[in-house]
Amino acid sequence: METSIDHIKSILDRYLQEIPAQLAGPDRSEFLAGKLPSMEPETRLELRKYVESFLNQMSTLSASDIDFGGHGCDGKIWYRIHGVKKPWERGPDFTFDQYTLLILNMLSDRQIDMLVREKSLDFSYTSLQNENERYRASSYFDLDHLALNMRKIEAEIRPFSGLNLHANIARQLSLNHLKFGLTLVTGITGSGKSSTLDTIIDANNQTVNAHIVIISSPLELIHQTKKCIIRHREVGRDVASFRDGIVQAMRQDPDIIVIGELRDSASIRNALEVTDSGHKVFSTLHTASAMESIDRIVGETAQEEQDRVRMRLADVLTCVISQKLVKTTTGKRALAKEVMITTPPIMAAIRNNNVSEIYQMMHEGAQYGMHTLEQDLYRLVELETISRDEAISQANNKSRMLQLLNKTV
Length: 409
Hints:
CATH class of the largest domain: Alpha Beta
Number of strands: 13
Low-confidence stretches: none
Helix content: 40-55%
Mean pLDDT: 94
Distance between the termini: 60 Å
Number of helices: 16
CATH topology of the largest domain: Rossmann fold
Structural class: alpha/beta
CATH superfamily of the largest domain: P-loop containing nucleotide triphosphate hydrolases
Strand order of the largest sheet: 9-8-10-11-7-12-13
Shape: globular
Order of helices and strands: HHHEEEHHEEEHEHEEHEHEHHEEHHHHH
Oligomer: single chain
Strand content: 15-25%
Radius of gyration: 23 Å
Number of domains: 2
């Protein structure tokens, strides 16, 4: 292993020694990017395979993410294992410039141009040695040096039954039952939103003849055609922007449109517009609860537009699944979630800006398949899957969580 590391460092240092001494910060990265075309294809391949040896360790370590490069990693490779991020003690140390060159070598010329221009790049990466191994990646500058995070995309789609959803919710998610409406899967980074969304897409792919268009940045899991035509369009590669992808999709005869993430006011507006047109739309949002999701969508719009957005959202929103991955008593992670469907009372609460009333409606909405996050955490405590302390720590409404645990309600 040491010989291999020394060999790789010698290759990197041959190019690093050409950096002019006066260059500093991002100019060093730009200079190195300019040297890549002169590197022998065999050498570039060798460097990429070496980086992929770090990626291969993810399966061995049961890691979801890998980080390296930039000031923050301090020359080490870091993995997130069962939710905990820590350095790989057996891994090699590299300098900032060595990591920069390793990262740049993984990118195409177009991607490098975008990274240098925007100072950040989201992309998908497919293993050279196994095309079924794919990663969601983000490269960016950390104190003038390139850093990289990569998350492994699980090739195996989890069964729909594993979501443990009420039959009424399952019907809401199926194109066979409901042909229109906006469904949101929400949660913080690393909460498994993409996996849940892929499971829902696959359930439709197995059960209904239809056309699904997925617009994402970057694309993660690639779905195989079963009963549906499935189009995968990556922003920056297959289409210029989310808006262009959505507008173009409406001319492509879709039944379902999947928007990878509602990141800003423009993508939120586009999602509402396409749902208004009568399509079934799925997307994700970085929010921790159903109520926060509604507030976020309304709050992202201009003040004078918010009343109109509330009305539109009340009309098109059909379901919100807000989830977390919580630590189990065995040190692994389990899915905890909150589920809301837009019943007439909830629709009225959204229209009248009475979002705070929705929590109690979910709490009392078991016959519709609804429940709060706290009720689901309590279920996991009762099953002895998680501890009481973990339930309290992960709860959005800690006072209600304590009431449930003490059985006072």
